[in-house]
Write a structure and sequence with these properties.
Elements (H helix, E strand, L loop, with lengths): L3 H14 L2 H4 L7 E3 L9 E4 L3 E7 L4 E15 L3 H16 L9 E14 L5 E15 L1
Parallel strand pairs: 1-2
Antiparallel strand pairs: 2-4, 3-4, 4-6, 5-6
Length: 138
Amino acid sequence: MIEPVTALQTAIRARLLNKPEVIALVPADHIRAGSTRPDKTPCITMSDGSTMLHGNDYRAQSAAWVYLDLHVWTLDAGQDAAKEIAGAAAAALSKYSLPIEGGYCDHFKVTTTRHVRDPNPAYGHSILSVEALIRWMV
């Protein structure tokens, strides 16, 4: 059995690492899962996410909707730098189906992009929200 959030995070990270447009803006080791303001910037941090189980079918497949946010952070580069990284990440994630190790991704899309002001004006911060419908064998 796969854990849907972890499988989606792994697939998203692999996609972003294979896109030169993203890697030109964010070092590969700065694209990771996590939940706090980063100590290294620029970076893309994937939230813990949430899973809404969708049930099983007659062939012993399980399905779940997975939702998570990707936080783009910059430091001393301005909000425009965060917007540029968010745009490159959204483009990288919006063009193809997303392969999931140990399962299938029947639906994937970036649903929203938000550019928010951090209380510390030195930080740039953007958030991409994604959703996926993932299936796997039980």
